[in-house]
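Good morning C.,

I know you're traveling, so I'll keep this short. The sequence:
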Amino acid sequence: MGRILLGVFLGLVFVPIAMLGWLRLGSVPVAVTDQPLPHEQQFAQMTLHTRIDRELVKIPPIQPDEGNFITGAHVYSEKCIVCHGLHGRPSAFGPRMFPAAPPLWDKHEGNDIVGVSDDLPGATYWKVANGIRLTGMPSFKGLLTENEMWQVSLLVANADKPLPPAAVEILLGRQSAPTSNLDLKH
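The tokens, ready to paste straight into the viewer:
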């Protein structure tokens, strides 16, 4: 019985002290180029998906129509291309982030899913509105209106479907986005 209590005591005292020492020594993989911890991505994805599922808005308050796709394309070209790229023009540094910023207009390896088109628009909206800690994905609350966040979320949710030609032109970088209605809101 004494050995069991000693083992429990050492586990409750030694393990936290060892973890604190490991953190203080600077050996934790924090650089993007470091190898990830075992199961790091699985744990992060599990907690992210649980939180999104709990707060998910299942029915978007706007329709996936031409006007919303065009406005969404303008928002995307102003705020998103730097990490997620455009049609046929991937981001230069999105793949160098950890985890890599997904190219939202390319098919996934091994299947026909384009970007996040397999996610519900509400899940993408949650990520746009709230950001994702320690990934480089910022929160756009206060930078975009609720409508703009929904418009870009609906746009990328439909990346695997034909889009209005005007939206495609914007996403190809052939038409510049108007900056007057996308200025930062303060």
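Safe travels,
E.
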